[in-house]
## 1
Amino acid sequence: MGEPAGRPDAPGAGHVLGVDSGGSGLRIAVARADDPEARPLALRTSDEPVRTGPAGIDAEHLLSQLLPAAAELAREAGADGFTAGCVGAAGMATLGEELRTRLPGALATAFGVRRLALAADAVTAYAGALGQRPGAVVAAGTGMIALGTDLTPEGGWRRADGWGHLLGDCGGGAWIGRAGLEAALRAYDGRPGGSAALLARAEAVFGPVTGLPGALYPRPDRPAVLASFAPEVARCATGDDAVALGILRAAAGHVADAAAAVCPPGSGTTVACTGGLFAMGEPLLTPLRAALAERLPEARATLPAGSPLDGSLTIAAALSRDRLTLPVDRKLLQITRPAPG
Amino acid sequence: MGEPAGRPDAPGAGHVLGVDSGGSGLRIAVARADDPEARPLALRTSDEPVRTGPAGIDAEHLLSQLLPAAAELAREAGADGFTAGCVGAAGMATLGEELRTRLPGALATAFGVRRLALAADAVTAYAGALGQRPGAVVAAGTGMIALGTDLTPEGGWRRADGWGHLLGDCGGGAWIGRAGLEAALRAYDGRPGGSAALLARAEAVFGPVTGLPGALYPRPDRPAVLASFAPEVARCATGDDAVALGILRAAAGHVADAAAAVCPPGSGTTVACTGGLFAMGEPLLTPLRAALAERLPEARATLPAGSPLDGSLTIAAALSRDRLTLPVDRKLLQITRPAPG
């Protein structure tokens, strides 16, 4: 901040680096620092998710993929290093300690990065969906979290759910899939709340249901296994199965509850839903529109403008131009200003 | 069967061995084979649960505890070996392969056991609660399973739930505790369905709730951690917390649904609830009596006559006297007649 314009490291000069690290892999892109929309000039994706070890997200594993990809992207975009960067990662708030320690120095040394944002994936999802506008964003895939802000420093970020598959993530993919499998087993047992259609789909996907506990419990990725059944719930809802329709109506209610808990007050506030869950389409979106209209009658539901990777570039470009207005917060969005190595 | 009476290995002569192996340890007892009530003459308990390995329940680990304890019990009861035995174990249906292979020979060699029953813990719970009468038994602790039979060979066992904490066990300890923690986090987030009282108890037990995911997800015994919060839900219900009352009412409904799914038809059928969950007392038992009366108006709810260890002795004594009338079934109750070693 405050460097005179025109120097090579002046705010706004050059290019910025955006990173989105999640359960399905790593996405990296470059944008011009002076592009207000921070459109990606070039990008790389890796389908090897960054490992999490006993010390949290493995910084070495992230850097081993990030440094060579970022060097290629710099060449491709004609960039002489990066003035600023943003790394968004799933688990940043609770598992990001090693990233906070290692990344700023490593990126300063390799690319002259002078300002680096370390963001929870919910924050890059927010910035991708709404940019730097106030509002609320629900990010849902296997899990579900809602984040909102009125952009005032005292308001900060409001967060709801995102507690994981045993404590919450209500209405997310694992929640929907789990409810669908429970309904399948209720039908098998002859208990109330069962669905023969969901039982048929469960057997088609997993084989005889007596084998389901053995197929699920030993797996380390139980939430993903549960979430893999969510599209089958949508399929049964499309076929007018009452139990499946009820599950998706309840899921939509939970998602809208989380949005309402974080949405800043006032008319015309923007609410966006982003993430893989919503690819399920109308079986979920129809009850979700109804639930949002009921709980947030004054808000305006919009489509997300972009992805978490777009959000990461937006934050990096804003940081580079001294225009970051999203709330800064030790866990959700931390800014570091490393000295060059 | 068919051996002439009076020979030393005649049915009904001598003593029988009963074993109950579960998550909290191993219980072993001896009874006289000709005691129709199979009352324990002597017993041993070990608080070291039998290990489960990649090949299922570890037969070697079970035998290393069982053989010396059974030898002591034989001396104590003045028994010259055992004519029959029953080993009931949690996970017998799915993880009992090594026990099926190893136990019959080992117990024949050590104690002359000629008839051995290998039973799922739900079956020994049934036999402990109702003996060899037709009816339905709900066994609930961390998990929840219901088992019923009309004692006809074609009817066999009917089983409901018992699918584990992600797929069912609806109304069991982990289910109640999980629902209580979700309600605590709803209050923390400002989402509907929250309970300030449960939030206060969650913080008293686990510390600040932001640390709850980190305290729960890395644990291998997640269901037990969840179930450890169930008594706090009962405590809040006693204090008239509406959310806690609602959770226990729903749990009672699920337990009664499972009982109704397995209960043989007809008036006066006996239904018993057994297991540690019911030690919670009136906060659960009051809505449970109401739910059972609604779903099974013609059935008679009774207290369990005895424990799963009593059930194991009941099965062993019946087997010894050729009087076993409970349904035999490859997974739930298997009878082996080993040749002496």
Note: Chain B has a mean pLDDT of 92.
## 2
Amino acid sequence: MAFSFLHQLECPRCHASYDPDTQAHLCTCGSPLLVRYDLEAASKQLSKQELQRREPSLWRYHELLPVRSPENVITLGEGMTPLIPLKRLGAQLEMPNLYVKDEGVIPTGSFKARGAAVGVSRAKELGVKTLAMPTNGNAGGAWATYAARAGIEAVIVMPEGAPTITRNECAINGARLFLVNGLINDAGAIVGRGVKAHGWYEASTLKEPYRIEGKKTMGYELAEQFAWDVPDVILYPTGGGVGIIGIYKALRELQQMGWIGERLPRLVAVQATGCAPIVQAWQEGKPDSQLWPNSRTIAFGINVPKALGDFLVLEAVRNTDGCAIAISDEELLQAQSRLATTEGLFVCPEGAATLAAAEQLRASGWIKADERVVLLNTGTGLKYPDTVQVEVPLLQPQDNLPVT
Amino acid sequence: MAFSFLHQLECPRCHASYDPDTQAHLCTCGSPLLVRYDLEAASKQLSKQELQRREPSLWRYHELLPVRSPENVITLGEGMTPLIPLKRLGAQLEMPNLYVKDEGVIPTGSFKARGAAVGVSRAKELGVKTLAMPTNGNAGGAWATYAARAGIEAVIVMPEGAPTITRNECAINGARLFLVNGLINDAGAIVGRGVKAHGWYEASTLKEPYRIEGKKTMGYELAEQFAWDVPDVILYPTGGGVGIIGIYKALRELQQMGWIGERLPRLVAVQATGCAPIVQAWQEGKPDSQLWPNSRTIAFGINVPKALGDFLVLEAVRNTDGCAIAISDEELLQAQSRLATTEGLFVCPEGAATLAAAEQLRASGWIKADERVVLLNTGTGLKYPDTVQVEVPLLQPQDNLPVT
């Protein structure tokens, strides 16, 4: 009985392979590396029935994750987030089979916990003492959290404009935190120089191969939650793109294991109109994106002007007959409010963008009325207090409440 | 096959019984009412094996919950929160079997979601159109959330000093929100007058019988997560007391069903030194508490100067050979920081108080080294940004990171 069927690291661009049991970052050709498993052996050990008996965390899929020894698993119980039907909103929008997969209900309140749990566990297994990364906030909070639990030092650099609460998360967990007067690409450059100078473990998006392995579990869970009959459309807010790359990777792995059929969900990359490099590349039929100048959106997590894995996102979208679509800040704030008042879901701005996107794609006919549509909400709205403007009447103890 | 084995409402003080299928609030004697089930019939239908096959939410225990019809279940996937071993902290504190049950990983980021999910579902089943309640913040956020999902109007009154983020939660979910220049008892009096004047459904703590039914599921889950061999000590931050009353009720029900043995965990009510009416009553051997004057603590959720269910809390503590203990704000902030840096858990101040309490009870010998000890963390630290003070260096894009 193997805990993991980790086999090798592989470059998706030049197909070079690497030993998975030494620290690895990018391929010599500059591409991110992907983790490969012995799926045939895994499918002999793991069954759908066995899965049902396991605890509701992403570690239920440990055979398909890169951590070799259970002692190295650093977990806070992350994963198996709820799949929530949106009956009232679905009826209003003529999508009766509309769902949210709610990544607000996970440690750190953001899907970034998945990548951090698996990434930090594997870093611990590989002997890492200090890791460093740039972040738009949530990833930093998550990696600081799991690094604290693992006893690994974390050096985090985030833009000054990132959500304030994520500073607190990094700080209380004991990370060495720095702000930068710039965007995530500026933070990335600072981290890159620090890694080179000090020999830290580079944990930037896709610059180590294991974060994606944590995030792909969203794909496994969706397949399992739909009883292995995958939905028709999945909409994903896309910044660095690891979530959508991961879901596509997971679905392909399940296909190879024979657990799902030929049909895949159409994957939709949702961006903000103020930062839409993937949408532009998709519209122009290009294999990768151009740096988006002066990028700007209230959905801070998808303010990524140029993603290292852009070509992998575009591949996932094209290979599944998906599409890419940009949403304005005004539209996504309206969608955020509508999800809360109609369904009781207080989602992050990034997650809200997927509802606005679904609405537009339904109106255009790209989504059909009978299709099963999943909005991926990547985090809780609680981390973005500034998106809600509240003026509340103040009463004195002797006052009475008005009727309406 | 019954969805619920709801049998009747019963007064724990004068033992009067009430029809459960009409709206009910307090007993004519002034006591809260408790929900009773046909446990014998329930234990014939529900088995421990069957439970394993059910989804990881509190609705897995639906036979022991008051909602009669599945169509009335208002859910966001709440429940089955993680039970997290604290190995490093446990070793430091000589409690090798120390755990956190983490209610930060639940919709709305607080255990209040449990009471709201079940309470709102049952209110919907009973035909409620408008509910009203006072809150220290988190309960209001949770009830506003589930009321929005149910299509029920919510009128919420909270102290001006309650956590700001909970205002946003109420507002974005469309509740009618009011602040009061006072404490929760002042908010309660305003709501009481509003209920009388306008005929709203009174949803104050213990003034409707179903909130406790949601919260008791923490007790079911703990029993199930410990494979029906319950832990030795459970520490619970105690304000209104519904959580600890609910856990005690759940454990007694499991005993009556023969699912757990005679031994119960010792229940510890943890309060703040600035608001410790239950601790005082426990020390003085009294059956109920006195209103605590000028109450004050940073752990806002347990700033409850006089709880309606105080006698039930004291009963739960006494009947399980438990105790009550007060923690200073300084101690709980230290504990909050220690949980984060050592275990990667960013808990709310109320939850942090349980660690400080466990430490003191271990030092005094009240907790033995080999005992299995559970800290109940009632919510995520993300909702309390002000408890973390951060000063972060600001870099320019051309700057380099220092070594240490």
Note: The mean pLDDT of chain A is 96.
## 3
Amino acid sequence: MSSITREEPNYFGAGPAYLPTEVLQQAAQDLVNYHGANLGIGEISHRDKRAINVVDETKQKFIELYNIPDTHEVLFLQGGGHTGFSSIATNLLANFAKRTGKKGKGAYAVTGSWSAKAVEEAQRLGVDVEVLTNSKEVFGSYTDIQPFSEWKKPNPEETAYVYYCDNETVHGVEFPFIPQFDGIEVAADMSSNILSKQIDISKFGLIFAGAQKNVGLAGVTIYIIKKTLIEQLPEAELRELGIPVTPIAFHYPTAIKQNSLHNTLPIFTVQILNLVLAKLIKDGSLPEQEKRNDRKSSQLYQILDKHADFYNLPVAKGVRSEMNIVFTMKSPELEAKFLKEAEQANLTGLKGHRSVGGLRASLYNAITEKSATLLAEFVDKFATENK
Amino acid sequence: MSSITREEPNYFGAGPAYLPTEVLQQAAQDLVNYHGANLGIGEISHRDKRAINVVDETKQKFIELYNIPDTHEVLFLQGGGHTGFSSIATNLLANFAKRTGKKGKGAYAVTGSWSAKAVEEAQRLGVDVEVLTNSKEVFGSYTDIQPFSEWKKPNPEETAYVYYCDNETVHGVEFPFIPQFDGIEVAADMSSNILSKQIDISKFGLIFAGAQKNVGLAGVTIYIIKKTLIEQLPEAELRELGIPVTPIAFHYPTAIKQNSLHNTLPIFTVQILNLVLAKLIKDGSLPEQEKRNDRKSSQLYQILDKHADFYNLPVAKGVRSEMNIVFTMKSPELEAKFLKEAEQANLTGLKGHRSVGGLRASLYNAITEKSATLLAEFVDKFATENK
């Protein structure tokens, strides 16, 4: 491990986000001199055995951590949320067309700005979109999730997939349930809560996540996909049906066939994922991580609730995110004072998203309980002093 | 700069490729603790001023190095060659449609496996492709380039762009001229020779290059694009004309409007680019780099030519690549012996591409003259000893 040091930051940015210092120190070593090769892992061909090992090891750790059954594949692509939006729509329509001979619809739950963006991108590409629930229309804002029983029910004969965002990073809304449909597979965006808790993979047709919040640096996206969703009609037939052809770099069947190495994968970025996952396994895997995340967010929410006359929590209790805790105060001046004093106390990255304002504390996997406690104490003290 | 060390490798891999040790040492530092912030540059939001500075600085260095005129924009996207193939086709068709109201063709020069792949991808997506020259058909293999006067001439009324690959990494063929057409802009893949020499940017409608050969790690692609090629028809009209809509993450007008930050750019990977370019400027910019590259490749070609009875150079003299020097020997056994002894002499990454076999020495910008000379001496000695 390298000797590059830093004082532990208490950094609560929403992403790209804090990573464990020991992971970055090891990554720094691997960047310059990987396993004594006098070459960095990023300078080696992606066809080299050492690079392939990095991909295989990382994949295997996902399988281990999530207990991924044989029914599903794990793959890595470049891109992030936006390439997920487009690639899920076009790949899953192409699969539905293979199964039914038809151009299906994409059905969406809109519960925050990220799922809204997914809809926007699907429509740009020419996908027929059906919206099953839209929190903004139901509640006036993205602060709650409509009970599942009240959602519009999609027709399995016409619907290629249902899409939802499991954790809305900007609005701080997290699903407390997994929407399930007879005869339609569900695709979930877990960019900001991947590996934050145990889940039953068999309930998902597809899960995707950009690495840069919970598990690594920007530039790699993880896909977990059910094997029945892989096969597709040939491109010429897709075009005839009016289904947009997926660019080859995001074509799931090709990526799976080539072990995520059809085109050049950024192997150094995958290696950071590999190191993050190794640490997660060493530290007790998902059962322990889930408990740590519960403790971190409960502590902060409790303090915020204790000062309900001072802090405003816009998100309904039942759908509060464990990852992104959004709160506001009665004036922008007070919020500015909070940010300034927090920074003086070495607590940073707390400004809310430009579209919603206020404050946001992201308590991703890598945020230590010590950092979370320092923040909770500061939140408590600031309320007491400024009421 | 970090204290992570390595012995200088003499690594001639074709990409991802060797980077200067001092660049990687600085990058290692920036990965863990950027400018004393106790945070790595990859952990900071891409909306943070520090991240935006990295993008702006890197862009500015490209402008300085290539003397890029005001008529052109520089942008960075994720992806690599394959996303270049798709995004160039769909973006430039959408621009042609804006200018003419028509679905234009893409005209291609096929001079090696990379330009052949570009054609393949365009056809997958439903682009009407016209091939202007195909070396394999003319010469039986990708070992020469047809004189420009003999190329098919595209019709500017129907042609959105002409595409060619300036340096074919696999086959070791580099263009000694820039193809130019009245009324049609040229798009060039310079993935493996970007910034290797001075060029006149005004002759290009578009240049693109994956970073991982000459200027950085995999995961970022550089685009230099003429402003007249940016504007596009709205998506609904494109779909009516049968033009594939570009996924938003690769939509040039959006990327330019958002300073390459519409979606999350891998800032750490851009920072490596920034460091590579800073070193290039410090070391005399392109005039000096061009001379170094000339000396490195001339020296090796001279030795290979001296032993023309022992080494076979498949590529015609006039189109030999300065970056990727391809040669074979009379038997696979002898080539294996060469590779083994080269490795013993600490000269690695010399195996030819799996599709063509033989040997390949990639003498990218970062390869020092010292490394190139050690290789040339070994090549000389091996011939003398094994004739």
Note: The longest strand of chain B covers residues 159-165.
